[in-house]
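Each field is set out underneath.
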Amino acid sequence: MQRLAAKHPGEAEYLQAVQEVLESIEEVYNRHPEFEKAKIIERMVEPDRIFTFRVTWVDDRGEVQTNLGYRVQFNSAIGPYKGGLRFHRAVSPSMLKFLGFEQTFKNALTTLPMGGAKGGSDFDPVGKSDDEIMRFCQAFMLELWQCIGPDQDIPAGDVGVGSREIGFLNGMYQKLAREYHTGVLTGKGMAWGGSILRPEATGYGALYFTQHMLDKVGKTLQGKHIAISGFGNVAWGAAKKATELGAKVVAISGPDGVCEIKDGITGEMIDYMLLMRASNRNRVQDMADRFPDKVVFAADKKAWTVPCDIALPCAFQNELSLDDAKQLKQNGCWCCCEVSNMGCQPDAIHFFLNNHILFAPGKAVNAGGVATSGLEMTQNAQHLNWTAQEVDNRLHHIMKAIHEQCVAHGTLPDGNIDYVKGANIAGFMKVAQAMLEQGTI
């Protein structure tokens, strides 16, 4: 870690992600001298390559705008590069390296043959028109298209990139490639190669994983109060599945504050979350304005101020701090599952573990999204569309297998389960073995 920090000074998110994995795998790594001889760690923590490019586009006023675009191809030991594109003003090489590193292990946990990657731009979609977003996506793909392909690197959506953006990106790719590669992007529309349940998959998979965690300790989701951060695609899927499984979602949040829903979110509210995301306003207060009799908005507050049994961070990395963790415990929370990537700060995670609060990391909890992207790739390769039941059954099976891997590698001598350790060891061992068997490359 000292050598890595000296080599990459100031890349806080990336160094944090590496630190967490190395702490978890230290014992098992030291039991395999062949890993040390082949310098697996030194190779694994550095991406295979990083593409950086300028994205120039014209806004609605006719003014030329310039952003930076990136694609971090991190590791392809077990399959082609796979990972989302993120459009957000805070995007940086450090952020994308952390996400690509995490993606490598997350994809390994799915049991599907996918390597790890991540990409995006510091373009801020908030307040932009559909035409501006289209022109930016087209300019972004103009620089990216030669670096990706259905058996090379398959991007998907992430923060700021939903089905609308994937459509604009895919249209430009087909124009440039002059070949119809159905499987070069995932998260596509149903009319042109998308998979049923892909929009819901990250949130659905997170609740399936949470369900397995609760089963392990003799609890259920029925009647439990859940607080969710964010109101985008991931939060929407989580709210929808939690409600279907009998839980009560009592809070959603945004950068402007939190909406408390004491009687639980309704189907109409869940549908309205899609309109909120599509508006590009980035305001959760819109929910309270739309349903004033059922929703109370509190400005500049987080979801974690609302009493709950289960906390689901669904918005952004490091969104849940130590103070938030303490407030959750004080308000009766006894379970936290990261649905966003690295959603909790290290001090918050240690607090949860030290206070016997059930906790699971994003690389396990939110793997349902990329797993269903992998299923979309399979359908594209077969030129088939599976039914919703087929996709959901496979997603159920994958999330169950991920939970079983976490239990197998994370069970402690006292019988408790360290899901962070279990997820990291399970993902690491698969990637490390693949790297070892393919030689020093």
